[in-house]
Design the sequence.
């Protein structure tokens, strides 16, 4: 009778464990990729646990985390989009979509701590159960509770003293491959529990695992967090990663720090000498003014609720397809509906990166080039022979010619950020080769990280408030964003013409703003807030460019030119 009671209690605990699972489970789809290597997504691991599923056609979906609350998943998805995976979305899984299976739980780890997977490999096939910031590591799958219980002693003998048998709905299970283990490969050994197959109670059955948990087999080297360029003055190494504010140098004397000190001193938060060095006193004064100035507090709050941080949304279906070509699994099929030069160029790109060079790639690209340039009014002769027939044996030439197609008259489609992210070396060389013959028709999608910096968001928000015309020309905003991207990707310092233009613009807006501020106390308060945000942003931008290898004077020019693209569209009344 006692044994029967223990059995009832054991089964009751199992049932309670199953019922305790939520009826819904949320996860974040990062995107769909042709090749999902663990090292390509290192910048996301701080946000949660990464896992993959395999689709038809050698496509791999990358997911992050498992969450019991939809709000938690939405927050993570928002952070993933900020990192650069703009198609990240929340997906809901329901328990009725899965089935119960039996596993042995080996241990629990946190998602924000490194997991030493080699400690678990000897246990057998590994899976994880994700629950917010926890990772439950289990082995299985077992055909029955009895089979798992018989194998439990072996598992505990490996050092997993607290291991126990449990049932779990397989929608919560994700197989651990080298991707999930951060690139760590499993040791090459076969696990044999008993020499006699008749005595082998534990059975790891592949057919017990849903297809979505199969190992990743991808094909083409499309990368999403590439190795940074070897030169400092190239595509910034921070591109495509989570925005990290550059540290401010304390031993660089600069006008931006001096101007900031002046306004902080007028606000009563800075008490040291006006020396132009951004030291501890300036840091403390800036933080203090943010806490004390109500106008700044208001704009800090408003800046957090901007939908697009001043970056114009892409216009048109084809532009959206191009922008999300490697993240959105529907984009390649949608691209087939178009036969424009840009569409054919990206069809050729997909074929080349999937299958390599071919006559079909050559045909698509040559047709795209001829259609882009022939019969069009050309203000300047293109830097290549668009009437020639090309064979595309390497990706660099194909990407260079994609640049040319984007610059053709009447194209109207901006080059996407991911092209710079996925192929940094090829695109950097193409950009350097192309920039000397750049056409005014050439546009870039806004690729920079600046619009996510707190001080820049605040400066933009105040600038928008200074603009009496609330319906700003979105084409102007888009053009400014493209200019900012060109500066962001700039391989060289500004030339003398652009340098003078940036300095002239900066001087004119401050002459206008100071004059406007002198007429009314409310105007003065608004301009004071703008000064704090503007000069703090300028300091930070200067350090960003100095981090890329530019001299302080060059960094100052680049920072001013960048600020013009951010607040300039709202400053027309003052320049």
Sequence:
């Amino acid at each position: 009778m006692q044994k029967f009671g223990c059995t009832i209690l054991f089964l009751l605990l199992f049932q309670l464990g199953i019922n305790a699972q939520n009826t819904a489970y949320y996860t974040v789809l990062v995107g769909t990729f042709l090749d999902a290597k663990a090292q390509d997504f290192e910048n996301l691991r701080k946000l949660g646990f990464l896992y993959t599923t395999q689709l038809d056609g050698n496509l791999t979906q990358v997911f992050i985390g498992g969450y019991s609350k939809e709000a938690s998943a939405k927050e993570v998805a928002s952070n993933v989009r900020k990192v650069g995976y703009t198609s990240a979305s929340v997906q809901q899984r329901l328990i009725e979509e899965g089935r119960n299976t039996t596993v042995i739980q080996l241990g629990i780890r946190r998602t924000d701590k490194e997991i030493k997977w080699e400690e678990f490999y000897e246990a057998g096939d590994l899976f994880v159960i994700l629950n917010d910031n926890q990772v439950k590591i289990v082995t299985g799958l077992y055909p029955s509770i009895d089979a798992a219980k018989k194998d439990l002693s072996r598992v505990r003998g490996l050092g997993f003293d607290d291991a126990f048998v449990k049932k779990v709905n397989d929608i919560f299970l994700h197989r651990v491959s080298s991707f999930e283990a951060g690139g760590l490969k499993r040791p090459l050994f076969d696990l044999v529990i008993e020499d006699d197959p008749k005595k082998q109670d534990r059975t790891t059955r592949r057919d017990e695992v849903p297809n979505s948990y199969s190992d990743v087999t991808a094909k083409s080297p499309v990368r999403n967090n590439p190795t940074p360029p070897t030169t400092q003055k190239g595509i910034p190494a921070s591109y495509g990663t989570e925005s990290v504010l550059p540290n401010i140098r304390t031993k660089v004397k600069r006008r931006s720090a001096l101007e900031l000190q002046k306004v902080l001193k007028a606000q009563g938060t800075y008490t040291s000498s006006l020396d132009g060095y951004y030291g501890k006193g300036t840091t403390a004064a800036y933080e203090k003014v943010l806490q004390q100035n109500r106008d700044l507090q208001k704009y800090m709050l408003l800046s957090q609720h901007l939908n697009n941080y001043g970056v114009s949304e892409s216009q048109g279906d084809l532009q959206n397809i191009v922008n999300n070509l490697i993240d959105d699994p529907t984009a390649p099929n949608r691209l087939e509906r178009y036969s424009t030069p840009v569409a054919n160029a990206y069809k050729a790109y997909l074929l080349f990166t999937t299958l390599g060079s071919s006559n079909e790639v050559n045909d698509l690209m040559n047709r795209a080039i001829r259609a882009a340039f022939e019969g069009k009014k050309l203000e300047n002769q293109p830097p290549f022979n668009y009437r020639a027939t090309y064979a595309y044996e390497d990706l660099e030439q194909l990407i260079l010619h994609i640049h040319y197609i984007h610059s053709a008259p009447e194209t109207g489609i901006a080059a996407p950020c991911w092209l710079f992210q996925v192929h940094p070396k090829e695109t950097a060389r193409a950009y350097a080769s192309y920039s000397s013959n750049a056409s005014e028709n050439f546009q870039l999608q806004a690729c920079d990280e600046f619009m996510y910096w707190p001080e820049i968001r605040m400066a933009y928000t105040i600038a928008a408030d200074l603009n009496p015309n609330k319906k700003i020309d979105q084409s102007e905003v888009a053009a400014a964003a493209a200019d900012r991207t060109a500066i962001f990707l700039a391989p060289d310092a500004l030339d003398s013409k652009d340098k003078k233009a940036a300095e002239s613009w900066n001087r004119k807006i401050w002459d206008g703003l100071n004059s406007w501020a002198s007429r009314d106390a409310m105007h003065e308060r608004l301009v004071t807030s703008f000064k704090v945000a503007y000069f703090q942003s300028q300091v930070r931008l200067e350090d960003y460019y100095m981090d890329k290898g530019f001299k302080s004077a060059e960094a100052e020019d680049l920072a001013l030119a960048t600020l013009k693209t951010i607040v300039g569209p709202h400053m027309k009344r003052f320049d």
